[in-house]
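Input.
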Amino acid sequence: MSTSVERFDEQARQRFGRFGRTTVHEGELLRHPVYTRVLHWTVAIFFFLALLSGLAIYSPWLYRWISPLFGGGANTRLLHPWFGAGFVIVYLFQFLNWLSPMRWKPADRQWVGRMREYVSGDEKLEPEYVGFFNAGQKLQFWEIVFGAGLLLITGFFMWFPEVFGRILVAIAYVLHDIAALIMVFGIWIHIYLSTVGQPGTFQSMTRGVVTRAWAWTNHPAWYADVTGRNPREDHQRELDRQERRRARERSLDEVAEEKPSPDRNSPDAPGSR
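Output.
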């Protein structure tokens, strides 16, 4: 099933899909194919390897338990820039993969204007103009793009200090740390929203699918694109179905309560003689 989003690297996605399979059950929609999921988790692995090794370098006393994981302090310093380079290289492929749906649109300004409602959870349904990604996800995407670029440039200065001189390297250290802190803050928000904040999101990056209810709730415009159906009508239809089911359950409970229990003293009661 198509996700109705044209990609820069569509051919790569199709070729990569031959090495994996995504099973879409009834009531589900394909959200992320194999290619996207592999890129996502590879980026995540390189990011946390770079983060852990960077923490061990930044504060050897506080994070002295990390260095042994990489073979000691010297080895940690050796591996850290390679972890960072791996993160940037793989994220470049993810950048090309998500560039089209991450482009800013006029409707995204409206979403930013109602960010308070999104954070507070006052509105259970996203606005009907929210497509494959909402404006918050787009902002985080571009935050990672610029943050990764800054980490790459400053990290390159720090990797070859004898080439760039003491002043540039000193400035690079400060900017590198600031960029890393911003990235870490954004990643924790991402982890929260993809697990506790929006239940059902995590499986989109494990199994690659989401439920139709998740789609019409969080990304109604995308739901309409891939199904050709009205997300609000399907949502209301599901609410009506649940209400009818609850009504039947209440009716059965009332019948069970009204049914008289057998009198043990009666000759017809079980166990009577």
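The chain has a mean pLDDT of 88.
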